[in-house]
């Protein structure tokens, strides 16, 4: 059976797994973004707090993904829960680090000027700092998404949803009929999803960043 015949014969299952994979990654990156950006806002003005936050996420980042998934089986079991937890934890570091870098990179004279005209600290953050830091934060989101896309494939190790099932199934039956097709379909599907997500982030960047900030970014 050729690769195209394999895809045609399992189109419904492959479409379902592709949607599962995309949905899982989108949800994990959204959770990581909410947590990472909030932590970045809270710690970016304190060097010690920043070092603790980035150090903690860096330690998590160094844990091999299969080991992390294996460790999560005991408290969370198999399936979606350990997969989402692991992917979210790995996605935290680039988002947190870029949030801190982006906020610290905002020209202090602009912040002082905003405070000088009577803006509160919250308004300065929302109206000045976050918009100027947004291109850097968005880059962190893009990196986190590409990272999560690959780790999402390994989540099949704990019966996680998505295209990783095709890869693990193919590798487990290597040499058997359609083993190579399954591995290729899973891999190519994840690559295509990664390119699609990246294109969405490029579009979001163009729609949410003013031309002046894009030029100076």
TrEMBL record:
Its main location: membrane. GO terms for cellular component: plasma membrane. The keyword Signal does not apply. It is a multi-pass membrane protein. Keywords: Membrane, Transmembrane, Transmembrane helix, Transport. The chain crosses the membrane at residues 24-43, 55-81, 132-159, 179-204. Residues 18-201 form the ABC transmembrane type-1 domain. It holds the Pfam family BPD_transp_1. GO terms for biological process: glycine betaine transport; transmembrane transport. InterPro entries: ABC_transp_perm/SBD (IPR051204), MetI-like (IPR000515), MetI-like_sf (IPR035906). It is found in: Cell membrane; Membrane. PANTHER family: GLYCINE BETAINE/L-PROLINE TRANSPORT SYSTEM PERMEASE PROTEIN PROW (PTHR30177), OSMOPROTECTANT IMPORT PERMEASE PROTEIN OSMW (PTHR30177:SF4). Belongs to the binding-protein-dependent transport system permease family. This is Osmoprotectant transport system permease protein.
